[in-house]
Amino acid sequence: MAEEMELDLVEISAKADPPVCKILDYQKYLYQQRKKAKEMKANAAKIVIKEIRFGPNTDEHDFQFKLKHAQEFLQEGSKVKASIFFRGRSIQFAQQGEKQLLRFAVELEEFGRAESMPQLEGKRMSMMIAPIKKK
């Protein structure tokens, strides 16, 4: 029947008794599958990560300025990576940097939640803050 219709005979389920087959244009079927996969990928939510960097001795005004930017990023739906970069001997102030990151997370509590605690990686201490989903 498939040859008469100039189509392909595709086996759907080989384990069934009798095996289940379908007559269809296999190339068209593959094209539709790729098209569906492409649409699903396009509709998938893209995660954007914005990074905010400051030092361990950042002044209060600069801290508030960066805090305001982080709030805007979280309201847009982006994740925020807050990181403190230690230059030279400023690595001695690691505890001060950790306090600053924790304060940053507490101030942003109504806009996002901290995904991880501050982690020191080389000369950089960072933490991720994810936006709170709106209902």
Task: Provide a descriptive summary of the structure in words.
This protein has helices at residues 2-5, 26-43, 60-76, 94-107; strands at residues 8-13, 20-24, 49-54, 79-85, 112-114, 119-121, 124-131. The protein has 135 residues and is an alpha+beta fold. Strands 3, 4, 5, 6 and 7 form a five-stranded mixed β-sheet that branches. Strands 1-2 form a two-stranded antiparallel ribbon.
CATH class label of the largest domain: Alpha Beta
Count of individual domains: 2
CATH H level, superfamily name of the largest domain: Translation initiation factor 3 (IF-3), C-terminal domain
* Terminal Cα span: 54 Å
Structural class: alpha+beta
Keywords:
alpha+beta, Ubiquitin-like (UB roll), Translation Initiation Factor IF3, 5-stranded mixed sheet
